[in-house]
Amino acid sequence: MKKYIIAAALMIGTGAFINTTMQSCTTLATSDLGLSIIKRLLLNGIDKGVNVYSNRDAFLQNNMVDKALPKQLRDINSMLEKIAPSLVAKERAYIADAAVYTVNISKPILVNAVNSLNANDVTRIIQGEKGTATLILKEKTSQQLIAAITPKVEEQLNQYGIVKSINTALSGSNLLGSLLGGNKTSVNSGGLSQLASEQLVNGIFNIIEDYEIQNSKSLLGPLGK
């Protein structure tokens, strides 16, 4: 009988220890220190993304930016590759220029969102999968970023006349309607700018998420992550 009592006491004691440990991690995570660590993680990721976007060559060579290419724009480029491959290279180069042109608009929006993180956000980050911090940042800023940079992206693309060049190359193509919907026979300037803006926004989130995942263990480990 004594053996059972001792075993039960050990189990209760172990459970209390685990519970206390979990509570202490949660308390630390939601403390000013925990919030500061998470903010620093995201701010470092933002800096990495800004460095890529501020450098035309770095932008063009970054595969996480390429992965962010919207399906419609990828389909248009696949079509262009068959009839005017040089236009795809020009389009990518002009979007890279737009990245340089708009990065100083995006950065303050991202930084402000990081600085507005609260205890509820931190708890969700600690309890979530790797990449949750970036996901929350994306939820808070994605639409705002697209709205803020799209006019500038359109201005940049129109400056180079890329939309007119694409339409000239695709004129008479019966595939464009199936790509863009309806009976469209030309690429709309605003539509291309919207797609390019989506790529810019999703690309920088890909870079931030990659930084978070690569560094979460070393930086968030003390918080129980």
From TrEMBL:
This is DUF4197 domain-containing protein. It comes from Chryseobacterium gambrini. Residues 1-18 form the signal peptide. It holds the Pfam family DUF4197. InterPro entries: DUF4197. Keywords: Signal.
